[in-house]
Amino acid sequence: MHRMTQDPQHDAPQPDEQPDEQDGEPEPQTPERVRTGSDRIDEVIRAVEELEERPIEEHVGVFESAQVQLRRALDQPGDDGQVGGAEHPDDHLGHA
User: Fold this and answer.
1) 13, 41, 46, 68: which could form a disulfide with 36 (CB 3.0–4.6 Å)?
2) What is the pLDDT of residues 47-69, one digit of tens each?
3) Can you tell me the distance from the alpha carbon of 87 to that of 96, in angstroms, rounded to the nearest whole number?
4) Where are the domains of the chain?
5) Cα–Cα distance between 70 and 17 in angstroms, integer?
6) DSSP three-state, residue 86
7) pTM surpassing 0.90?
8) Share in percent of the chain as helix, strand, coil (round to 5)
């Protein structure tokens, strides 16, 4: 009569096999922070990126603040001179 037994050597992962924890999918990495070259803009982006860590009730306020700050950055040149002074696209279309 043939007995069925577990073979511990057969059940263990072989040296060339990957354990089940690594199903060929790399662990998700933290995305690199966006850098625009403007500290003001980078701070707004950082606040929006951190929304996942904040209560949902605070999201609207963060988005409203981000919109105001981004509008100001476009309307007024910053210390670095890279942001602001942009003309409205309609200015080039011959609109009066």
Assistant:
1) 41
2) 999 999 999 999 999 999 999 99
3) 14
4) 36-80
5) 51
6) coil
7) no
8) 45, 0, 55
